[in-house]
Write a structure and sequence with these properties.
Blueprint: H1 2-7, H2 15-29, E1 33-38, H3 43-46, E2 51-53, H4 55-64, E3 70-74, H5 77-86, E4 92-94, H6 103-106, H7 110-122, E5 128-133, H8 138-146, E6 150-152, H9 157-167, E7 170-174, H10 177-186, E8 194-197, H11 208-213, E9 216-219, H12 231-240, E10 245-248, H13 254-259, E11 262-263, H14 266-275, E12 281-285, H15 288-297, E13 302-305, H16 321-332, E14 339-340, H17 344-360
Parallel strand pairs: 1-2, 1-3, 3-4, 5-6, 5-7, 7-9, 8-9, 10-11, 10-12, 12-13
Antiparallel strand pairs: 4-14
Length: 361
């Protein structure tokens, strides 16, 4: 409550005052500070970021800025946790709003995943490698690290899957069923050998024979933004513009992926659009703020959101200029607010899982 009281005066400031004071606070902190901005952040946050990127790139680059004492992560909670796992000992990671979470990460509570793993053990399913998406809690990363598994990103999921199959026969992938399914199908694994584990149902809603026959078990979880991009949106855009190229993120449902021209991570999407020829037309299935920013940066190309609905990440949007300014001015006064600290026991095994990913990548 005390922290909320501190924030209240900032909510009354106009945009110009906020911008000027953020610039002043950054100047006062100098090289002691680095601000990381995820691609899905709004423009009035990105303009103040020292580094922009996806979640893993930012966590890694934040740790590499060894001169920075404070790493202010403008993203969501699991991203700040990853930055804390990888940071140098003298660094402190700060999340301007602790309510900036991730609905996908929340769909795989640690207790539910541990229970699922125990159920597989009871069924005699031992030959399985757990893989967690970067978009998960530090506890799930540690779960994988301690059990011979690894972390993956949307850009290296296939490489991690290939590595996992060299370890054991099956993969248990969480928390995003769509990335898991899309990766497996792209590798030639038949759809019938990919099963969904529903934590709300006994034994994941699966029979022992279904689990035994499965090559990949995917968790019933999803991104609230990317699941909004449907097959009908592809048909609608092609009807409007027969020359349009459909470019989507691998967190979208398989039917949409199958109908798209290109599929890839956030960094892949950005690179593809930047390298595309002038005059080309693109409908992109990912977060609204990123697409809008790219469209402004490349007016010589037609870049639109695949769905005409407003597909923004509501939790990412919680990072506002007001709470960024509050966090920075607090640092100037010597007050560290909203530090993210992963327990050492969790950090140890989570880093093992991240390091395995790096060795494969």
């Amino acid at each position: 409550m005390a922290r909320l009281k501190e924030l209240e005066p900032y909510l009354l400031l106009d945009d110009t005052a906020i911008r000027e004071r953020i610039v002043a606070a950054k100047r006062a902190l100098g090289e002691r500070l680095v601000i990381l901005g995820h691609h899905y952040q709004r423009d009035d946050i990105i303009e103040h970021a020292d580094v922009t990127g996806d979640s893993y790139k930012l966590a890694r680059l934040g740790a590499e800025r060894t001169g920075a004492e404070f790493v202010v992560f403008c993203g969501v909670h699991f991203m700040a946790e990853s930055a804390d796992i990888l940071r140098a000992p003298h660094q402190t990671v700060i999340l301007p709003d602790l309510n900036a979470g991730c609905s996908m990460a929340d769909m795989a509570p640690t207790d539910d995943v541990v229970e699922a793993g125990a159920t597989l053990e009871r069924l005699g399913v031992h030959d399985v490698t757990p893989i967690t998406y970067m978009n998960s809690t530090a506890e799930l990363k540690a779960f994988c690290g301690e059990r011979g598994g690894a972390v993956c990103t949307s850009s290296n999921a296939r490489g991690i899957f290939e590595w996992a199959f060299r370890q054991k026969e099956k993969i248990f992938f969480f928390p995003d069923e769509h990335l898991g399914r899309n990766t497996a199908i792209a590798m030639g694994i038949p759809a019938e050998r990919i099963v969904v584990w529903d934590p709300k149902k006994a034994q994941g809603g699966l029979t022992a024979s279904e689990i035994d026959a499965a090559t990949v078990i995917v968790w019933k979880g999803c991104c609230s933004v990317h699941t909004k991009f449907l097959l009908r949106h592809v048909h609608e855009r092609r009807a409007e513009d027969p020359g349009v190229k459909i470019l989507v993120h691998p967190e979208v449902p398989y039917e949409t992926v199958a109908a798209a021209d290109l599929v890839g991570s956030t960094e892949f999407i950005i690179r593809t659009l930047r390298e595309a020829p002038a005059g080309s037309s693109w409908a992109v299935g990912t977060e609204y703020h990123l697409i809008s920013r790219l469209a402004k940066q490349m007016p010589e190309k037609k870049i639109v959101v695949l769905s005409k609905d407003f597909c923004l990440c509501a939790t990412m949007y919680r990072i506002s200029p007001q709470n960024l300014l509050w966090a920075l001015e607090s640092l100037v006064r010597g007050d560290v607010v909203n530090p993210i600290r992963v327990p050492e026991s969790t950090k140890k095994w989570a880093k093992v899982a991240l390091d395995r990913m790096l060795q494969v990548h």
